[in-house]
């Protein structure tokens, strides 16, 4: 059987050129005993894709020229020679930018970065690539387990109209916090406030003093800052943190295009405030929590069914359009989760 | 009764000029019912003195021109009109750079920033301004309560030959960690290793690549970084942290001379690593832990008596020499705790 895949042609140097990957045809290997064949239904585009495309060590093994591009796939088992996996089972895993993947059945575990799941009958599959997938899990883990959001907390979320930010805002609201997002443009701010009920929104494209805008939105300081952006946004938030506030580092998308080029990275000047304000700043990766999805999936599904949690996906049809879509993650011209629909 | 005091003449602008304070004679007020008269025995010089001398909001109320300079005093009750305090009682409090202070007896509580104590009969009073005073408490709280140092941890301490650093190194050793300090100069490094038994020392004055030096000292990464320094040292440590490492922000002495001048502050470029390495970075102030000294003083005294905890004080005789001694905190030409001896 033949399939198409995106393989690495050359490494990214900062800003994406759109030629880093090459669209190739290749054969799908035959299944050996213990193997499972998974078809890609949806491929999510994530800021970390840019890190994986760089020739710079990160938290996962370095990819090589000629490798299939790494990516998170919601896939369906099409053939199985492993007793633990049946045809039709659904799974999240880093199966890469390809139409089919053949993997060892025993590797489909949280420890290996894969989570099998059973969709709720009343919830569409699209919800599982955003609110109920790794994006929603990240928002939940960052907001609740790391950030310990509580009733009455004053919460700031950057990248609020982005995939993780959208979910983080709504989870904080569901936990009784007052939530202000930072997003780019009136349209995104209107969506956050009017459609999702977020308490306030700072349009960073319409302000030349982020710190002052935060000070107006948080006269008593920020109790919890959920950071998807890093860079100058993090600096401005540090200036506006309340005593004993918490900062959750979920991502630093503003810095990924400088990955590997230390001189271009933004320097955060206000880290000295960690002591004077007694702040805790903590990073996390959802990979560490994959074995705990059973704890929070029921909560997320229940919020979704009650309307407390909504999602926005930007669907791009066809795996062949994945490379062209990737830069949209960094230009901000999409809403919510950017997904390649391969169904 | 007359006394001498240092009052604020003008605010500091970055580097100290040595004219910010004025040495004045003034009378000691008569005691009212409930008042206590405390004589300054020893005044500690601390990096935060520079923050307090600046016209820039910090974690304590802003001082005004003409105010007595704020400072931490180990004092003795000389007269008392408060039933809770007897002549001869010893106390730590922010009584200021003056020979005597008259305070309300009920204000001498941890909540108000004061701790009364009874020295162990076998321990000299000098130990209580360093290893067994707020400096030692900071080291203990930062290392154990915030940093959660444990057996086998690979620990880095910056400003290791400074007052807090010295104690932090030894406390980590006493808890079974492997400890490498960063200090300026061969003499300090030799003292740390040979006299205090610290496992290694990076002489920052003899290296032009701090990060590489740390990588050599920590081939498996740093589990716990106790930071007294901030700035480029923090950036280099971030590069060398192990997965799930902890960074305790005790101070940022490298940045205090830029306090209030945002452009001069060093920008930390590697904060994005908090997520990829799942790091926790947390600041603290000892002021928040003054009501818990009863928990850890017995441990610190026991370590001191057993020889596990040693201290180094640099004593300067006479309160009149305090202003001239203050810049020594930032030039690094002292060892351990810089103390004005007023006895």
TrEMBL record, chains A, B:
InterPro entries: ADH-like_C (IPR013149), ADH_N_2 (IPR041694), ER (IPR020843), GroES-like_sf (IPR011032), MDR_fam (IPR045010), NAD(P)-bd_dom_sf (IPR036291)
Residues in Enoyl reductase (ER) domain copies: 18-340
Alphabetical UniProt keywords: Oxidoreductase
GO function terms (MF aspect): oxidoreductase activity, acting on the CH-CH group of donors, NAD or NADP as acceptor
Stored Pfam families: ADH_N_2, ADH_zinc_N
CDD domains given in the database record: PGDH
UniProt name for this protein: NADP-dependent oxidoreductase
UniProt organism field: Marinobacterium nitratireducens
């Amino acid at each position: 059987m033949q399939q198409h895949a995106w393989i690495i042609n050359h490494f990214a140097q900062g800003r994406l050129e759109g030629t880093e990957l090459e669209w190739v045809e290749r054969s799908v290997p035959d299944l050996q005993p213990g193997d499972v064949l998974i078809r890609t239904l949806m491929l999510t585009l994530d800021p970390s894709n840019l890190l994986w495309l760089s020739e710079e060590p990160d938290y996962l093994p370095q990819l090589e020229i000629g490798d299939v591009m790494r990516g998170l796939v919601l896939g369906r088992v099409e053939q199985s020679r492993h007793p633990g996996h049946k045809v039709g089972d659904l799974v999240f895993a880093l199966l890469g930018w390809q139409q089919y993947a053949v993997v060892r059945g025993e590797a489909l575990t949280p420890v290996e970065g894969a989570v099998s799941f059973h969709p709720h009958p009343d919830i569409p599959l699209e919800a599982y690539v955003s609110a109920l997938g790794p994006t929603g899990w990240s928002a939940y883990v960052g907001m609740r387990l790391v950030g310990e959001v509580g009733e009455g907390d004053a919460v700031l979320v950057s990248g609020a109209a982005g995939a993780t930010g959208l979910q983080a805002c709504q989870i904080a609201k569901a936990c009784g916090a007052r939530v202000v997002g930072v997003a780019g443009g009136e349209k995104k701010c209107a969506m956050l406030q009017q459609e999702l009920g977020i308490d306030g929104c700072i349009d960073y494209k319409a302000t030349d003093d982020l710190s002052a805008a935060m000070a107006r939105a948080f006269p008593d300081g920020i109790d919890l800052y959920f950071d998807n952006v890093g860079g100058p946004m993090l600096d401005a938030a540090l200036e506006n943190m309340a005593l004993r506030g918490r900062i959750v580092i979920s991502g630093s998308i503003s810095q990924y295009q400088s990955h590997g080029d230390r001189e271009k990275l933004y320097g955060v000047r206000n880290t000295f405030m960690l002591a004077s304000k007694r702040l805790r700043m903590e990073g996390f990766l959802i990979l560490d929590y994959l074995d705990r999805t059973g704890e929070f999936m029921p909560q997320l599904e229940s919020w979704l069914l009650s309307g407390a949690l909504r999602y926005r996906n930007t669907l791009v049809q066809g795996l062949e359009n994945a490379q062209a879509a990737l830069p949209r993650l960094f230009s901000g011209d999409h809403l919510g989760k950017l997904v390649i629909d391969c169904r």
